Amino acid sequence: MKKWLFVSLILGISTSSVSAATPPAEHTVAFVSKVILDVTRKVEGKDWSKATRGEILTSGDRVRTGDKSLAVIKFKDNSLVRVREKSELVVTGEVKDNAFSKSVDLKNGAVGFNIKTQKADE
User: Each residue of 54-109: pLDDT tens digit?
Assistant: First the structure.
């Protein structure tokens, strides 16, 4: 019986830590699709950290690239933003009345866009 209690306790701890690290799907704006060399991200209230492929971005998150670096950000509607070297941007977005609205605030550097056709109310 003690063995089952220990296993349950361990599983409960690991499950709660995973759910705390992953934002709810309704808050997801985009994710990091590609990372080449020096790419970092900043979540509001936290320090800059190394960005990894597949990482979820929520509204207000920042992405920054270093020398000879590149990041590709893919939004929920499959639109892409290529973040060129020495660039920094902030992604924002929201779903309102089933319409996804997004924006990119370029702090410095250069980006390239591939925007998907939007619905009439987006």
Answer: 999 988 899 999 999 999 999 888 888 899 999 999 988 877 777 777 778 788 88
CA distance 70 to 5: 47
Q: How far is 49 from 117, CA to CA, in rounded Å?
A: 33
Return the amino acid letter for 122.
E
| Burial class, 33, CB count within 10 angstroms (exposed 0-12 / middle 13-18 / buried 19+) | middle
Give residues with Cβ within 8 angstroms of 19, minimum separation 6: none
Q: What are the φ/ψ torsions at residue 12 (nearest 5 degrees)?
A: -65, -40
pTM higher than the cut 0.85:
no
Please, which residues have CB within 8 angstroms of residue 121's CB and are 6 or more apart in sequence? Answer: 97, 99
